[in-house]
Amino acid sequence: MSDDLQKELGVVRDEIDAIDAQLLELLNRRARCAQQVGEIKARHGEAGFIYRPEREAQVLRRIQGLNPGPLSNENVTWLFREVMSTCLSLEQPLSVAFLGPLGSFTGSAATKHFGHAARLLPQSSIDDVFREVEAGHAHYAVVPVENSTEGAVGRSMDLLFSTPLKICGEVVLRIHQNLMTREPSLDRVTKVYSHAQSLAQCHEWLNRNLPNVPRISVGSNSQAAELAMQEAGAAAIAGEAAAERFNVPILVANIEDEPNNTTRFVVLGRFDAGISGRDKTSLIMSAPNRTGSLHNLLLPLAEAGVSMTRLESRPARHTLWEYVFFVDIDGHRDEPKVAKALAELQQQAAYLKVLGSYPAAVY
């Protein structure tokens, strides 16, 4: 390395060192401010409200609006989520129940929303995820509600009908499937482990690249990754988090047949979220069994100028051949036009339950 090159690099590296020192000072200043927020809340009897979804969404949107680059908004959002997560943990680490095990896509969604400082509590079923928060053993829950290729997650929808918990956030996660193995090439792979749904999502890729290799369905992608690490010739299809957790090299990335495969998750807690400025409200409702009843049920939304972004029907479990409707609308339940529409819906609907108002996902 020439003297001139070393001199030029030295100038830039000195500047980086100075910036790092400034960053460290600013991060600790922010942490002290977060501690002050906790102390103020405690003095006013609101110590339980340590996490405010609407405030976090506002901060992230503001940062994205200020971002001049070259860092992408996605990278900046990730960095600031981790800063907020770490600062929040100084008050009290958040505990988050999710459909496990560790390394699952739902775990990745929980980490994306709450950051790495949150304490993740993997559960063996969606029912257990709900119960963990309902019983007060966890602050929040993260559960999948719909997939762009597979549709609604039925068990989550059924439990939303009866739970006292409120939807206070949402997470949208792009689902990337990866082939991971200790083997150096595809021709050394003798079997592929994965969850049945992931095998289905990679069906065409497997037909093209590993047509004669047995596909073995297991309970989770995390279990598949663990088996791939233990067994010679074995490969797994799983997400990046599973590869990192079990230290399995990814041989081929992004092998899913549908490149835009995306899953939407909701965050559940015991408290409503406040208005963030870009919100959604989720409802469950049913219409009387007569001609035009669904049209009449949706009319208050149209008349109030409230946009409906999702309408999903589910069989009503208590009555044969009757249905309930899961509806997402734009806006917060406390905004005047949404409140007016909900009041009119209450008069029209045979049944109405507001599942919660929450900030729209920040990407």
From TrEMBL:
Residues 282-359 form the ACT domain. Its main location: cytoplasm. The record marks 263 as: Essential for prephenate dehydratase activity. Residues 95-270 form the Prephenate dehydratase domain. It comes from the Bacteria. It catalyses: chorismate = prephenate; prephenate + H(+) = 3-phenylpyruvate + CO2 + H2O. InterPro entries: ACT-like_dom_sf, ACT_dom, Chor_mutase/pphenate_deHydtase, Chorismate_II_sf, CM_dom_sf, CM_II_prokaryot, G/b/e-P-prot_chorismate_mutase, Preph_deHydtase. The keyword Isomerase applies. It is found in: Cytoplasm. One of its GO terms (molecular function) is chorismate mutase activity. Pathway: Amino-acid biosynthesis; L-phenylalanine biosynthesis; phenylpyruvate from prephenate: step 1/1; Metabolic intermediate biosynthesis; prephenate biosynthesis; prephenate from chorismate: step 1/1. GO terms for biological process: chorismate metabolic process; L-phenylalanine biosynthetic process. One of its GO terms (cellular component) is cytoplasm. Residues 3-95 form the Chorismate mutase domain. Keywords: Amino-acid biosynthesis, Aromatic amino acid biosynthesis, Cytoplasm, Isomerase, Lyase, Multifunctional enzyme, Phenylalanine biosynthesis. It holds the Pfam family CM_2. The keyword Lyase applies. SMART domains: CM_2. Its EC number is 4.2.1.51, 5.4.99.5. Catalyzes the Claisen rearrangement of chorismate to prephenate and the decarboxylation/dehydration of prephenate to phenylpyruvate. This is Bifunctional chorismate mutase/prephenate dehydratase. The lineage of its organism: Bacteria, Pseudomonadati, Pseudomonadota, Betaproteobacteria, Rhodocyclales.
